[in-house]
Write a structure and sequence with these properties.
The chain contains eight helices and 13 strands. It is an alpha/beta fold. It has one domain: Metallo-beta-lactamase, Chain A, CATH 3.60.15.10. The two termini are 32 Å apart. Bound molecules: zinc ion (2 copies).
Amino acid sequence: MRIHNLSLGLARAYLVEHEAGLALVDAGSPGMEKVVLQTMQEISRQDLRIIVITHAHLDHYGSAAALRRATGAPVAVHLADASAMQRGDSPLGSPRGRGRLVKALFPLINFILHPEPVTPDLSLDDGDDLSSYGVPIKVLHTPGHTPGSCCYILADRWAFVGDLLSTTGGPHMQRYFAQDWAMIPASLNRLKALHPEKIYPGHGTDLLDGEVLQLLGSSSTQSGAGYRNA
Ligand SMILES: [Zn+2]
Ligand SMILES: [Zn+2]
C-alpha cells in the first residue's frame, strides 16, 4: 500500500494505492482534478473506487464532481455535511483570529474559485466501514470544524484528518474556523483514543507522528508557544 500526498490548490489530498483499488481522500480546490488524474496515469492505475470527503469546504470537495465524471468513482461525505456540499456551500461557522478576515473575503474567494456543487453518492456515519470499496477505510465522526467533519482511518493505522488539525507552521488543532468550538477538543480526543501511527492533515506539507498527536491540545501547544506564525 502506498499513499500519494497531493497538493491540490489550497488543501492537500491523499491518493491511497491499495492492491484492491484506489481511494482518494479529499478532492482539493476546484480545477485540480488534472493532478489526481495525472498521478493515476503515472502509477498506471485507473481503478479509483471511492472519493471520500473530510468535510464540506470548497478546498476539500472542489474537484470532486469533475473527478467523479472522469472516473465514475462515487463521492462520500458524512450525512451532516451532505446538504452543504450539495448546495456548493462552505459553511465557515464562527471564525477566530485571521479566520475572521478570510470569512469577510469569502464571498470573493467563492466567486473566484466557483466550486461545483456535489450531490454525494454515499452519506456516511460514524463507524461506517468502506472496505467493500476495495480499501480498508473506517469513518470516525469528528465534528466541530463543520457538523459533518470526519477522519478516515486506513487499516486501523493511518488517519486522514481533514481540518481537525494542521501542520502549517507546526502542528496544531484547528484554530480559525469552527461551527462548534467546544467539539474540537472532544473530536481530537476521539482521534487520539485510536492511537494512529501517522496523521495526514488537510493543510501543511508535514505529516504528524502518532506520539506528537498525543501531545496536541494541551495548554502549552494551544497557547501557541512556538507556533505563533502558523
Ligand atoms: Zn475546512
Ligand atoms: Zn481546509
